[in-house]
Amino acid sequence: MAAILRRTTTKAAAELLLRPTHGAGWLARFLGDGASSASHDTGAAAPREAEFVPWRNGGGVLHRAASVDPTAVVEAGAVVHSGAVIGKEVVVGSGTVVGPSVSVGQSTRIGYNVVLSNCSVGEFCTIHNGACIGQDGFGFFVGEDGQVKKKPQVLYARIGDNVEIGANTCIDRGSWRDTIIGDATKIDNLVQIGHNVVIGKCCMICGQVGIAGSATLGDYVTLGGRVAIRDHVTIASKVRLAANSLATKDIQNPGDYGGFPAVPANEWRRQTVNLRLLSKKHVVRR
């Protein structure tokens, strides 16, 4: 009797693992109904089967035209869209959206509520909660009619291998060249990287850094917290910028820099000391 009960329990557990969760099934039906309704409204023929189906490994849903490795985990509430490619042993966290034609390399781990669109992500990367990659950059101009118009943002964001991207960091897609993050670069939380930015390998970018569009950073660049890089500025390899610095022009030689605007570290220190002495000399006593 015990043996029969053990076999029955094992069989039931296996069937439970293969059965899609109710939440995944509901989300798949919801997405499919939306597609069916759109087809009905436009007069097109309704699809014969749902476009989105539950994924057996994790409880998320994916489009039938997506390519997902059997070892990948797509957690409940995550959605993988048409044409997306998810590699071996990838983990896609709950609430994450992997947009159309996005590719994610082997063993990459994606946190909760991440949005990936118009981008490719390399192997062995880590993307923390709330990050957004591949959205339009901030590009506008005033037309002859006096109206603010949007510049086309049609290219991609390319993330290399072994890259780590912090929570709520945003990386915009390119407009005239792809936005590129080099291999083994580490990016902290709350960083803004504008369109067309190219960052080399093994860079370290601390929290609240802002890099304006079309800037170029070499390899092994380190940016302290709240550093700002002006648009179209080029930073040479092995440059280190102190926290709260602003790079307004190209930095062509390796070394340490700081200040507003950024200058070589020794010069910045002299400026700080001279300003302090000057303020003490001209202090008004009451």
Notable characteristics:
single chain; 286 residues; alpha/beta; 11-stranded mixed β-sheet; 3 helices; 28% strand; elongated
Topology:
Blueprint: H1 2-18, H2 22-41, E1 52-54, E2 61-63, E3 67-68, E4 73-74, E5 79-80, E6 85-86, E7 91-92, E8 97-98, E9 103-104, E10 109-110, E11 115-116, E12 119-121, E13 126-127, E14 132-135, E15 140-142, E16 148-150, E17 157-159, E18 164-165, E19 170-172, E20 179-181, E21 186-187, E22 192-193, E23 198-199, E24 204-205, E25 210-211, E26 216-217, E27 222-223, E28 228-229, E29 234-235, E30 239-241, E31 246-247, E32 255-258, E33 263-264, H3 265-281
Parallel strand pairs: 2-5, 3-6, 4-7, 5-8, 6-9, 7-10, 8-11, 9-12, 10-13, 11-14, 12-17, 13-18, 14-19, 17-20, 18-21, 19-22, 20-23, 21-24, 22-25, 23-26, 24-27, 25-28, 26-29, 27-30, 28-31, 30-32
Antiparallel strand pairs: 1-2, 15-16, 32-33
Mean pLDDT: 87
The helical percent reads 10-25%
Indicate the low-confidence ranges by residue numbers: 1-18, 34-40
Q: How is the biggest beta sheet arranged? A: 11 strands, mixed
Strand order of the largest sheet: 1-2-5-8-11-14-19-22-25-28-31
What class would the helix/strand composition place it in? alpha/beta
Over all CA atoms, what is the radius of gyration? 25 Å
In terms of quaternary structure, the protein is single chain
